[in-house]
Structures are given as C-alpha cells and as structure tokens.
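Sanity check

After download, print the first record. It should look like this:
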Amino acid sequence: MDERAFVIQQIGANDSPERRRADEIFEGIIVPAVLESGLEAYRADLDFSPGAITPKMLAELLNARVVIADLTGRNPNVFYELGITHSFARPLISIADSASSLPFDAKR
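Expected structure tokens:
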C-alpha cells in the first residue's frame, strides 16, 4: 500500500492502561476501518526502523493521506501533532472517548 493514515494517540509506557487502550483502539477500530478504505494505518511508535523519531514523524504526518487523531487523555504530544496537522491543512479525523473532556477548540 502506498497511502497511509497517520494515527496520533496517547501511547504511554509498556503495559500501562494508556498503552493497552491505545493498542485496543488502534488494532480493533482504526486498522480495520483504514484497511477498508484502502489505506495502511501507521503509528510512529510501531515503526522500528532506525533514525530520529521527530523528522520521521513529521515526514509521515505531512505525507499521509489522512491523519486520525485520538484526543482522549489530552496528551501534549498528541496536541502538538494535531497543531502540525492543522498548520499544514492536512485532512483530519478526530476521535475521543468523550467530547466533554476535550478543550472547546477541539470539539469542532
């Protein structure tokens, strides 16, 4: 597959509740939906190729067909990557466990 959906999520440490939730949402919901649309789901922490993470993340984010941002947890890294997504007007799908936990400007 040539085109990817770049997935932004709060990942957390190995075996943490955040990591378990992220993996469940990614593998159980996002990957099947993205594959059905003909894209490949990509999450930076699952890429074990060598190199610095930030330049690679930026390149993947900017070249992705769509960005899927899971805003649950209000994680600063997620909102940083969301800001980049907005700055470069990348196509975006936002998801969250509850809209009531989001900042007002992320609810639109």
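If your output differs, re-run the checksum step. Summary of this record's structure: The chain has a mean pLDDT of 88.
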